Amino acid sequence: MSTSAGTDPTETTGLRTVKRRLLTELVNEFAAVAVSLDISGNGPRLLVEDLESGEHIFLTPLELASLCLASDEDREDWIRVGNYRDSRDPSFGRGPGGNGVRS
Fold first, then answer.
1. How far apart are the C-alpha atoms of 79 and 82, rounded to whole Å?
2. Average per-residue pLDDT in the chain?
3. CA-to-CA dists, residue 83 to 29, 73, 86, 88, 94, angstroms
């Protein structure tokens, strides 16, 4: 659903009504996401949508608070997904001699 910030759209899909408001789109050279406030569930939550792949996630207040409490190492690990997944392997990019050439 694409809406402008500040609107309060209501969309009926099947048996339930979806209420969602686009808050912003965040874009840089690495990613582009849309962030919306969704009040269709049991409580308010954020909907974060990857504009490139269409993948999305709903984040509850508890999950958002957990992000604030995460360590630097936790956050670094979250970034290593998708195209960056292989970089979790400590030997990634190293050949037998550790010279940066994969065997």
1. 9
2. 79
3. 14, 19, 7, 11, 18
